[in-house]
Amino acid sequence: MIILGIETSCDETAISLLDFQKNNRIKLLANVISSQIKTHQKYGGVVPEVAARQHLANIIPTIEFTLRKAKVQPKEIDVIAVASGPGLITSLMVGVETTKVLAYAWQKPVIGLNHIEGHIYANLLINSHLAQIKFPALCLVVSGGHTELIHMADHGQYKLVGRTLDDAAGEAFDKVAKLLKIGYPGGPAIEKIAQKGDPNAFDFPRPMIKYKNFDFSFSGLKTSVLYLVKKEFKNKKIPLADLLASFQQAVVDVLTDKTIRAAQELKIETVMMAGGVAANQKLRQELKAKIKKNLPNLKFLKPNIQHCTDNAVMIALAGYFHALKKDFTPWQKLKADPNWELV
Protein backbone atom coordinates (compact mmCIF):
# COMPACT_ATOMS: atom_id res chain seq x y z
CA MET A 1 0.00 0.00 0.00
CA ILE A 2 1.49 3.33 -1.09
CA ILE A 3 0.27 6.36 0.85
CA LEU A 4 0.83 9.98 -0.14
CA GLY A 5 1.11 12.17 2.98
CA ILE A 6 0.43 15.92 2.92
CA GLU A 7 1.14 18.25 5.85
CA THR A 8 0.64 22.05 5.76
CA SER A 9 -0.67 22.82 9.24
CA CYS A 10 1.81 25.60 10.00
CA ASP A 11 4.86 26.74 8.04
CA GLU A 12 6.21 23.55 6.47
CA THR A 13 5.00 22.33 3.09
CA ALA A 14 5.68 18.63 3.63
CA ILE A 15 5.01 15.76 1.25
CA SER A 16 5.90 12.08 1.67
CA LEU A 17 5.40 8.74 -0.04
CA LEU A 18 5.51 5.56 2.05
CA ASP A 19 5.15 2.01 0.80
CA PHE A 20 3.71 -0.29 3.48
CA GLN A 21 4.87 -3.82 2.67
CA LYS A 22 4.51 -7.31 4.12
CA ASN A 23 5.92 -8.31 7.52
CA ASN A 24 5.55 -4.74 8.86
CA ARG A 25 8.22 -3.41 6.53
CA ILE A 26 8.03 0.21 5.39
CA LYS A 27 9.87 1.70 2.44
CA LEU A 28 10.25 5.44 2.69
CA LEU A 29 10.06 6.35 -0.99
CA ALA A 30 10.38 10.10 -0.49
CA ASN A 31 10.17 12.70 2.26
CA VAL A 32 10.31 16.31 1.11
CA ILE A 33 9.91 19.45 3.23
CA SER A 34 9.84 22.96 1.83
CA SER A 35 10.71 24.96 4.94
CA GLN A 36 9.74 28.56 5.67
CA ILE A 37 11.95 29.03 8.74
CA LYS A 38 14.19 31.65 7.12
CA THR A 39 11.14 33.59 5.95
CA HIS A 40 9.64 33.82 9.45
CA GLN A 41 12.90 34.29 11.41
CA LYS A 42 12.84 38.05 10.89
CA TYR A 43 9.39 38.20 12.52
CA GLY A 44 10.35 36.03 15.49
CA GLY A 45 7.44 33.69 14.77
CA VAL A 46 5.12 32.39 12.07
CA VAL A 47 2.99 34.98 10.25
CA PRO A 48 -0.17 33.13 9.10
CA GLU A 49 -0.82 35.11 5.90
CA VAL A 50 2.81 34.81 4.81
CA ALA A 51 2.81 31.09 5.57
CA ALA A 52 -0.34 30.48 3.51
CA ARG A 53 1.04 32.33 0.48
CA GLN A 54 4.24 30.31 0.61
CA HIS A 55 2.22 27.08 0.84
CA LEU A 56 0.27 28.12 -2.26
CA ALA A 57 3.49 28.72 -4.16
CA ASN A 58 5.22 25.57 -2.92
CA ILE A 59 2.69 22.77 -2.70
CA ILE A 60 2.29 21.71 -6.34
CA PRO A 61 6.03 21.91 -7.14
CA THR A 62 6.77 19.99 -3.92
CA ILE A 63 4.28 17.23 -4.79
CA GLU A 64 5.69 16.97 -8.31
CA PHE A 65 9.25 16.82 -6.99
CA THR A 66 8.27 14.15 -4.45
CA LEU A 67 6.71 11.97 -7.15
CA ARG A 68 9.79 12.32 -9.35
CA LYS A 69 12.13 11.58 -6.46
CA ALA A 70 10.19 8.46 -5.51
CA LYS A 71 9.73 7.44 -9.16
CA VAL A 72 6.05 6.93 -8.47
CA GLN A 73 3.17 7.61 -10.86
CA PRO A 74 -0.18 8.86 -9.52
CA LYS A 75 -1.82 5.59 -10.61
CA GLU A 76 0.45 3.68 -8.19
CA ILE A 77 -0.76 5.65 -5.13
CA ASP A 78 -3.41 3.85 -3.09
CA VAL A 79 -4.41 6.50 -0.51
CA ILE A 80 -3.92 10.22 0.14
CA ALA A 81 -3.63 11.25 3.81
CA VAL A 82 -3.72 14.93 4.74
CA ALA A 83 -3.43 16.87 8.00
CA SER A 84 -6.82 18.58 8.35
CA GLY A 85 -6.27 20.20 11.76
CA PRO A 86 -5.44 21.60 14.19
CA GLY A 87 -3.24 24.41 12.90
CA LEU A 88 -3.38 27.70 11.05
CA ILE A 89 -6.63 27.77 9.08
CA THR A 90 -5.17 29.34 5.94
CA SER A 91 -2.23 26.93 5.91
CA LEU A 92 -4.47 23.91 6.50
CA MET A 93 -6.78 24.96 3.69
CA VAL A 94 -3.96 24.83 1.14
CA GLY A 95 -3.21 21.20 1.97
CA VAL A 96 -6.86 20.19 2.25
CA GLU A 97 -8.03 21.87 -0.96
CA THR A 98 -5.07 20.47 -2.89
CA THR A 99 -5.91 17.00 -1.57
CA LYS A 100 -9.51 17.34 -2.74
CA VAL A 101 -8.38 18.23 -6.25
CA LEU A 102 -5.93 15.32 -6.37
CA ALA A 103 -8.51 12.88 -4.99
CA TYR A 104 -10.97 13.91 -7.71
CA ALA A 105 -8.44 13.96 -10.53
CA TRP A 106 -6.70 10.71 -9.56
CA GLN A 107 -9.78 8.96 -8.13
CA LYS A 108 -8.07 8.12 -4.83
CA PRO A 109 -9.56 7.55 -1.36
CA VAL A 110 -8.74 10.24 1.20
CA ILE A 111 -8.05 10.28 4.93
CA GLY A 112 -8.37 13.55 6.84
CA LEU A 113 -6.05 13.29 9.84
CA ASN A 114 -5.55 15.05 13.11
CA HIS A 115 -2.10 16.65 13.15
CA ILE A 116 -1.44 15.48 16.73
CA GLU A 117 -2.34 11.90 15.85
CA GLY A 118 0.29 12.16 13.14
CA HIS A 119 2.91 13.22 15.68
CA ILE A 120 2.04 10.22 17.86
CA TYR A 121 2.42 7.78 14.98
CA ALA A 122 5.83 9.19 14.05
CA ASN A 123 7.06 6.84 16.80
CA LEU A 124 6.27 3.79 14.72
CA LEU A 125 8.90 4.11 11.99
CA ILE A 126 12.04 2.34 13.21
CA ASN A 127 14.74 1.23 10.77
CA SER A 128 12.31 0.61 7.89
CA HIS A 129 9.96 -1.35 10.12
CA LEU A 130 6.59 -0.60 11.64
CA ALA A 131 7.05 -0.76 15.41
CA GLN A 132 4.36 -2.43 17.48
CA ILE A 133 2.68 -0.65 20.39
CA LYS A 134 1.89 -2.63 23.54
CA PHE A 135 -1.35 -1.25 24.93
CA PRO A 136 -2.28 0.60 27.01
CA ALA A 137 0.16 3.26 25.88
CA LEU A 138 0.94 6.82 26.99
CA CYS A 139 2.26 9.57 24.75
CA LEU A 140 3.88 12.79 25.95
CA VAL A 141 3.00 15.35 23.27
CA VAL A 142 5.25 18.41 23.50
CA SER A 143 5.32 21.19 20.92
CA GLY A 144 4.87 24.91 20.49
CA GLY A 145 1.11 24.62 20.74
CA HIS A 146 0.57 21.48 22.81
CA THR A 147 1.77 19.85 26.00
CA GLU A 148 -0.40 16.84 26.75
CA LEU A 149 -0.34 13.33 28.13
CA ILE A 150 -2.55 11.12 25.96
CA HIS A 151 -3.63 7.62 26.96
CA MET A 152 -4.16 5.06 24.17
CA ALA A 153 -6.24 1.97 24.91
CA ASP A 154 -5.77 0.83 21.29
CA HIS A 155 -5.21 2.32 17.86
CA GLY A 156 -7.54 5.29 17.49
CA GLN A 157 -8.74 5.16 21.11
CA TYR A 158 -7.50 8.25 22.93
CA LYS A 159 -8.08 9.79 26.33
CA LEU A 160 -6.58 13.02 27.64
CA VAL A 161 -5.04 12.52 31.07
CA GLY A 162 -3.08 15.77 31.39
CA ARG A 163 -2.46 19.03 29.58
CA THR A 164 -0.88 22.44 30.08
CA LEU A 165 -3.08 25.00 31.79
CA ASP A 166 -1.31 27.91 30.10
CA ASP A 167 1.84 27.98 27.94
CA ALA A 168 2.93 24.85 26.11
CA ALA A 169 6.51 23.72 26.71
CA GLY A 170 7.58 24.71 23.20
CA GLU A 171 5.88 28.08 23.60
CA ALA A 172 7.88 28.67 26.79
CA PHE A 173 11.10 27.83 24.92
CA ASP A 174 10.19 30.27 22.14
CA LYS A 175 9.26 33.09 24.53
CA VAL A 176 12.45 32.72 26.59
CA ALA A 177 14.52 32.67 23.40
CA LYS A 178 12.77 35.83 22.20
CA LEU A 179 13.33 37.51 25.58
CA LEU A 180 17.05 36.77 25.40
CA LYS A 181 17.24 37.50 21.64
CA ILE A 182 18.97 34.23 20.76
CA GLY A 183 16.99 33.31 17.65
CA TYR A 184 14.01 31.47 16.23
CA PRO A 185 12.87 28.74 16.60
CA GLY A 186 13.59 28.93 20.30
CA GLY A 187 13.88 25.25 21.20
CA PRO A 188 16.93 24.37 19.09
CA ALA A 189 18.58 27.74 19.91
CA ILE A 190 18.23 27.18 23.67
CA GLU A 191 19.34 23.55 23.48
CA LYS A 192 22.52 24.44 21.61
CA ILE A 193 23.59 27.11 24.10
CA ALA A 194 22.46 25.08 27.14
CA GLN A 195 24.90 22.29 26.27
CA LYS A 196 27.73 24.48 27.60
CA GLY A 197 25.94 25.50 30.80
CA ASP A 198 25.39 24.22 34.32
CA PRO A 199 21.79 22.96 34.73
CA ASN A 200 22.04 23.52 38.51
CA ALA A 201 23.28 27.11 38.33
CA PHE A 202 19.83 28.62 38.92
CA ASP A 203 17.03 27.14 40.99
CA PHE A 204 14.04 27.77 38.77
CA PRO A 205 10.61 26.55 39.93
CA ARG A 206 9.17 23.24 38.73
CA PRO A 207 5.50 24.26 38.33
CA MET A 208 2.91 21.70 39.44
CA ILE A 209 5.49 18.93 39.75
CA LYS A 210 4.12 17.95 43.19
CA TYR A 211 0.46 18.07 42.14
CA LYS A 212 -1.35 14.74 42.11
CA ASN A 213 -2.88 15.39 38.69
CA PHE A 214 -1.00 15.15 35.39
CA ASP A 215 -1.48 18.73 34.21
CA PHE A 216 1.33 21.15 33.39
CA SER A 217 2.06 24.87 33.66
CA PHE A 218 5.00 26.72 32.13
CA SER A 219 3.90 30.36 32.25
CA GLY A 220 5.32 30.91 35.75
CA LEU A 221 8.64 29.34 34.81
CA LYS A 222 8.92 31.66 31.83
CA THR A 223 8.09 34.62 34.09
CA SER A 224 10.79 33.53 36.57
CA VAL A 225 13.36 33.82 33.79
CA LEU A 226 12.04 37.28 32.92
CA TYR A 227 12.29 38.52 36.53
CA LEU A 228 15.78 37.09 36.93
CA VAL A 229 17.01 38.82 33.79
CA LYS A 230 15.40 42.16 34.59
CA LYS A 231 16.34 42.30 38.27
CA GLU A 232 19.49 40.35 38.99
CA PHE A 233 21.16 40.98 35.64
CA LYS A 234 19.74 44.41 34.87
CA ASN A 235 23.15 45.99 34.36
CA LYS A 236 25.28 42.86 34.28
CA LYS A 237 26.34 40.34 31.70
CA ILE A 238 23.95 37.39 31.69
CA PRO A 239 25.58 33.96 32.15
CA LEU A 240 23.52 32.77 29.20
CA ALA A 241 24.60 29.13 29.02
CA ASP A 242 23.99 28.53 32.73
CA LEU A 243 20.66 30.34 32.68
CA LEU A 244 19.37 28.40 29.67
CA ALA A 245 20.69 25.07 30.95
CA SER A 246 18.84 25.65 34.23
CA PHE A 247 15.66 26.69 32.46
CA GLN A 248 15.79 23.67 30.17
CA GLN A 249 16.41 21.35 33.13
CA ALA A 250 13.34 22.71 34.91
CA VAL A 251 11.16 22.01 31.87
CA VAL A 252 12.60 18.52 31.44
CA ASP A 253 12.14 17.67 35.13
CA VAL A 254 8.46 18.55 35.02
CA LEU A 255 7.79 16.71 31.76
CA THR A 256 9.61 13.53 32.73
CA ASP A 257 8.38 13.32 36.33
CA LYS A 258 4.74 13.73 35.31
CA THR A 259 5.09 11.19 32.52
CA ILE A 260 6.68 8.57 34.77
CA ARG A 261 4.07 9.01 37.48
CA ALA A 262 1.22 8.78 34.96
CA ALA A 263 2.74 5.61 33.47
CA GLN A 264 2.98 4.06 36.94
CA GLU A 265 -0.54 4.96 38.06
CA LEU A 266 -2.21 4.02 34.76
CA LYS A 267 -0.30 0.73 34.42
CA ILE A 268 1.07 1.67 31.02
CA GLU A 269 2.86 -0.85 28.76
CA THR A 270 4.39 1.62 26.23
CA VAL A 271 5.54 5.22 26.62
CA MET A 272 6.04 7.43 23.57
CA MET A 273 6.93 11.05 22.95
CA ALA A 274 5.87 13.32 20.12
CA GLY A 275 6.07 16.87 18.79
CA GLY A 276 8.85 19.34 18.07
CA VAL A 277 10.16 19.44 21.65
CA ALA A 278 10.56 15.64 21.49
CA ALA A 279 13.70 16.37 19.44
CA ASN A 280 15.35 17.86 22.54
CA GLN A 281 18.21 15.50 23.44
CA LYS A 282 18.08 16.33 27.15
CA LEU A 283 14.41 15.38 27.29
CA ARG A 284 14.93 12.17 25.27
CA GLN A 285 17.86 11.04 27.41
CA GLU A 286 16.30 11.79 30.77
CA LEU A 287 12.93 10.24 29.95
CA LYS A 288 14.69 7.08 28.75
CA ALA A 289 16.85 6.97 31.89
CA LYS A 290 13.90 7.46 34.25
CA ILE A 291 11.89 4.76 32.50
CA LYS A 292 14.83 2.35 32.78
CA LYS A 293 15.16 3.13 36.48
CA ASN A 294 11.51 3.20 37.51
CA LEU A 295 9.75 1.05 34.89
CA PRO A 296 12.37 -1.32 33.45
CA ASN A 297 9.81 -3.61 31.77
CA LEU A 298 8.05 -0.77 29.97
CA LYS A 299 8.48 -0.33 26.20
CA PHE A 300 9.85 3.09 25.21
CA LEU A 301 9.42 4.49 21.71
CA LYS A 302 10.68 7.80 20.40
CA PRO A 303 10.45 9.28 16.90
CA ASN A 304 13.47 9.87 14.71
CA ILE A 305 14.78 13.39 15.25
CA GLN A 306 13.83 14.42 11.71
CA HIS A 307 10.25 13.26 12.30
CA CYS A 308 9.65 15.25 15.51
CA THR A 309 8.93 18.58 13.84
CA ASP A 310 6.14 18.88 11.26
CA ASN A 311 6.52 16.40 8.42
CA ALA A 312 4.36 14.29 6.13
CA VAL A 313 5.89 10.92 7.05
CA MET A 314 3.94 10.99 10.30
CA ILE A 315 0.72 11.76 8.39
CA ALA A 316 1.22 8.75 6.12
CA LEU A 317 2.03 6.54 9.13
CA ALA A 318 -1.15 7.50 10.95
CA GLY A 319 -3.09 7.26 7.71
CA TYR A 320 -2.06 3.62 7.29
CA PHE A 321 -4.01 2.54 10.38
CA HIS A 322 -7.11 4.36 9.17
CA ALA A 323 -6.72 2.82 5.73
CA LEU A 324 -6.60 -0.68 7.22
CA LYS A 325 -10.06 -0.01 8.66
CA LYS A 326 -11.17 1.72 5.43
CA ASP A 327 -11.81 4.82 7.49
CA PHE A 328 -11.92 7.17 4.51
CA THR A 329 -13.39 10.65 4.13
CA PRO A 330 -15.32 11.48 0.93
CA TRP A 331 -13.30 14.25 -0.69
CA GLN A 332 -16.42 16.40 -0.94
CA LYS A 333 -16.70 16.40 2.89
CA LEU A 334 -13.03 17.00 3.65
CA LYS A 335 -12.61 20.25 5.61
CA ALA A 336 -9.85 22.13 7.44
CA ASP A 337 -10.52 22.44 11.16
CA PRO A 338 -8.01 24.69 12.96
CA ASN A 339 -9.45 23.80 16.37
CA TRP A 340 -9.71 20.03 15.94
CA GLU A 341 -8.86 18.39 19.27
CA LEU A 342 -7.76 14.76 19.19
CA VAL A 343 -9.51 14.17 22.51
Overview of the structural elements:
This protein is an alpha/beta fold. It has two domains: 2-128 and 307-333, Nucleotidyltransferase, domain 5 (2-Layer Sandwich); 134-304, ATPase, nucleotide binding domain (Nucleotidyltransferase, domain 5). It contains ten helices and twelve strands. The chain has helices at 37-41, 48-70, 89-106, 115-121, 169-179, 186-194, 219-232, 240-265, 281-294, 313-324, and strands at residues 2-7, 12-20, 26-35, 79-85, 110-114, 125-126, 129-130, 137-142, 147-154, 157-163, 270-274, 299-301. The strands form three sheets. Strands 3-2-1-4-5 form a five-stranded mixed beta sheet, with helices on both faces. It has a five-stranded mixed beta sheet with strand order 10-9-8-11-12, sandwiched between helices. The protein has a two-stranded antiparallel ribbon with strand order 6-7. β6 and β7 (129-130) form a beta hairpin. α2 runs parallel beside α3 (89-106), α5 packs across α6 and α5 runs parallel beside α7. The model has no long low-confidence stretch (mean pLDDT 96).
- Tell me the domain tally: 2
**What would you call the shape?**
globular
Low confidence ranges: none
Oligomeric state? single chain
State the helical fraction: 40-55%
Number of helices: 10
- Helix/strand class: alpha/beta
Strand order of the largest sheet: 3-2-1-4-5
- The CATH class of the largest domain is Alpha Beta
